[in-house]
Design goal:
mainly alpha
């Protein structure tokens, strides 16, 4: 754009003074007229004027030269003024276009500034949220670590308590089995079983099956997990008594 503006300014060679010098000054034009008058005088007769211009001819030639110089300068000034006006209009048009372009650039710059401000605010908001999330993650990690420690401690304690309870149960079961074995002899249990089977066989067929079934379920090992060994022995006694009573009948 600077190049375009520089081209519109008048070049020093196009100035009125330069034009005046190129087309002819007062002395130059006068010299031309004097040469023309001298040539005319020689043709008409140099003897009459003796080779010299009369005062009237010299006055006429000077006025004519001044008029020609004035006309030439007027033409030069008119051409220069027209050129200046044309260049002024061109510069005005370019200035208007430049102002419009500058206004468009300013609007774009303001829009870019507003967008940049919004982006900065959004980035700040994201940074704040990221900081909050980091703090929350740190808190959850610490809480999870604490829960893991508590769980490990609780699990260890539970395992210990379960082991102690199992040992205590085993001791109680052993003591109870021993007490039952001591209080009840094998002979008395066998007599009771045979008496119960004999009573069942004295009943009707349906009643007998019912009582024998109840007796077998009562002393089944699965029904007596605490006295599994004793229940197994009693079940054998029951089967033996049923076989004997059946063969006797």
């Amino acid at each position: 754009m600077d190049q375009d503006l520089s081209d519109d300014y008048m070049h020093p060679q196009d100035s009125p003074e330069r034009l005046d010098e190129s087309e002819g000054s007062y002395d130059t034009i006068r010299s031309k007229h004097e040469d023309a008058d001298a040539s005319g005088s020689e043709e008409d007769g140099s003897e009459e004027h003796g080779g010299q211009l009369s005062p009237q001819d010299d006055s006429w030639s000077t006025s004519d030269v001044i008029s020609d110089v004035f006309d030439q300068r007027v033409r030069v000034l008119a051409a220069t003024l027209e050129s200046v006006e044309s260049r002024y209009a061109s510069l005005s048009s370019k200035l208007t276009a430049s102002e419009e372009q500058s206004a468009s650039h300013m609007n774009r710059l303001e829009a870019a500034d507003r967008a940049s401000g919004r982006l900065k605010a959004h980035n700040e908001s994201l940074k704040d949220r990221e900081q909050i999330l980091r703090q929350e993650v740190s808190r959850l990690q610490a809480q999870m670590q604490t829960c893991r420690i508590d769980t490990a401690i609780s699990g260890s304690k539970l395992q210990q308590l379960l082991e102690e309870e199992r040992l205590r149960t085993d001791r109680m079961r052993s003591l109870r089995d021993n007490a039952l074995m001591q209080s009840t002899s094998t002979a008395s249990i066998r007599a009771s079983i045979f008496a119960a089977v004999a009573e069942a066989f004295s009943c009707s067929e349906e009643e007998r099956k019912k009582k024998l079934r109840q007796l077998q379920l009562r002393w089944h090992p699965d029904k007596n997990p605490v006295l599994a060994d004793l229940a197994t022995e009693v079940s054998k006694m029951i089967n033996e008594a049923i076989a004997r009573m059946g063969s006797a009948s």
